[in-house]
Amino acid sequence: MADAGAKAKVHKLIETKVRPLAREGFKQYKETVPKLLQATTKIDNAIKQYEEADTIKTYLRSVGIEARKLIEARQPLRYANTALDNVTKDDDDYEADKDEIEKLKVELTDALGFIEYQLAHVKALEDRANAFIDMLEKSEDKAEKDWASVVLTSERNVHNVQKALKELQAWDTDAQAAVKSRDAKRLKRLQSTVPSINLEDDVLKGNMTVEYREKFQKRFDIKTLSAEFQTEFQRDLTKLNGFDKDIQKAAQECKKIMDNAPKLAVEPPDLKKAMSLLALPSKAESKLKAALELDEAPMIKALDALAKELKLKNTGKDMVKKLQGGGII
């Protein structure tokens, strides 16, 4: 029978070599198992209730996270189990603290066995869930939902570009009016607030729906779906072709206006024509040029001064009216 000294020696070895590893592993093991069981139950229920594939994918992520934590817990428990075997490999050492050793050995063995069982269960559940997801994603219900989304998204895109075109056309009308009326300040203000829209090359080339269709047909074999769906699919293809043409036309008009916006400018007044219309001598050309670059109120003042200098009968206001009537300003 082992004496007290032998028992103390074995107990100390267990406390220093085995217990720290066991505590580390058991802590994570006890924290993880309930979360893992909860996550796997969610997947079981989701499959039974035919929940959406995306929902099951989300649950699978949670299971994967908890399974990795369980694998992390397994490592120190394995080390603790091996350390316990090493500490008690001699019968005398085992007998020295048999009850404590047996209890710890059972706890470690049970935990490691349960971990292996749970990891095998997780693997089987993941396989079953992925097969179920694959079935859902290839089902006609899924095909109908995804195809409806393609048509709706395409229609919405056309609407958005056509709406943007209307805004750009309204802007262009105002900008062209500013150019025609020679209102440089208004034009500059308008050019600082040009409506804009991002136009992809596929849209400009009339291929907006091509990628949508290709992705859909890679996921679903149309020939395996019902005749009713195939008829609807063909009918919608014609609709999508129309969407491509409509959005291409609107997008190209948008691009044309946006590209031209910074190029709009108020042309400088025709100085020679203005000189002729006002019957001014050549020596007045530089002062008339300076006056024509001003806004209307200061322009009238400058022309008043010029009229006085040249001893003309016309006032600055009269001269502005003449210039406006002649389409010079």
Percent helix, as a range, is over 70%
Using DSSP, what is the number of strands?
0
Order of helices and strands: HHHHHHHHHHHHH
Number of helical segments? 13
Distance between the termini: 121 Å
Biggest pleated sheet: none
What structural class is derived from the secondary structure elements? mainly alpha
Layout of secondary structure:
Elements: H1 4-48, H2 53-87, H3 91-96, H4 98-137, H5 140-180, H6 184-191, H7 201-204, H8 210-219, H9 227-260, H10 271-278, H11 285-292, H12 296-309, H13 316-325
Helix pairs in contact: 1-2, 1-4, 2-4, 5-6, 5-9, 10-11, 11-12, 12-13
Describe the structure.
- The chain is an all-alpha fold and 329 residues long.
- The protein has helices at residues 4-48, 53-87, 91-96, 98-137, 140-180, 184-191, 201-204, 210-219, 227-260, 271-278, 285-292, 296-309, 316-325.
- The longest helix has 45 residues, at 4-48.
- The protein starts with a helix and ends with a helix.
- The mean pLDDT is 90.
What are the main properties of this structure?
80% helix; mainly alpha; 329 residues
Quick description:
By secondary structure, this protein is an all-alpha fold.
